UniProtKB/TrEMBL annotation:
GO terms for cellular component: plasma membrane. Residues 1-24 are annotated as: Disordered. CDD domains: ABC_MJ0796_LolCDE_FtsE. Keywords: ATP-binding, Cell cycle, Cell division, Nucleotide-binding, Transport. Belongs to the ABC transporter superfamily. It comes from the Bacteria. It comes from Brachybacterium nesterenkovii. The keyword Cell division applies. Coiled coil: none annotated. One of its GO terms (biological process) is cell division. This is Cell division transporter, ATP-binding protein FtsE (TC 3.A.5.1.1).
Amino acid sequence: MSTAPGAEPPTESLAPIEAPIPSRGARAAGTAPLLELRSLARAVRLPGGEVLEILRGIDLIVEGGEHVSIVGRSGSGKTTLLNQLGLIDRPTGGTVLFDGQDSTRLSDRRRARLRGESVGFVFQQFNLLEGRTALENVMMPMLYGTARQFWGREKAAMEMLERVGLAGRAQSKPNRMSGGEQQRVAVARALVRRPRLILADEPTGALDVTTGEAVMALLDEIARESGAALVTITHDLQVAALSDRSFLLDGGVLHTVDRDAARGALAGTAGIRAGRAAVGASGDTTQATGAAVGDADAAARVGASEGGAR
């Protein structure tokens, strides 16, 4: 089936995978995975009374210490899924288990506490406080931590800024920093409480290719060092190819993606960079992203299988 330039091929054209892709996350026998979604569904009721299914039948296991990427076009439900993974929103069906604990049974207060202690968020828009220094921005999550974290917040924040290579910029404010520096501050802020799960939502979307690659390498390196799980939500196949396992979110359903085929597509074509260069020259970054994903996906016919997203 042919695909128009800039369009994404239908999921039906993707060949199934015959064997599961191994992950780097290791788990002792008899212990629960860090994060598990079971038959997860999320629906909303529209003003006219109709029910819109955004996510349906999603099964996913994320182990501590592994890097998982979820790829999808705009409107595929990526943000809704991120809100489920990060315990921000509740599902309308299924369960979300965090370290074996059913989060859907917890009160809002307990969910918020679990989220604050165990989950770090990195967003496309850096969301830094403009009137605060880099050091003060990184310290912010510590204000809501334990007494020990509160009193040790400056030392911990400085150590994290040093880890991301910005110790010399601790007193700089966001408007005096480059986009890459601001994103590294955002990474430091997300990791300062040593979360067990790092959720990165389009972390390279506002960055140039070279800076984006550096930020992703930093995120992956820190996650490996700390043993935290890293889940990247992206529309960029080049970012997805850096992960241990990749998934495609299409029509609210999660499909397992053949990682090696995805990487082969990028190696055998101009990939994401060419798509951005060719279409991005028009200034339409949304179209550039669509073209890059569509071209690479169509070239590889990246394998996918429905259900059992392990």
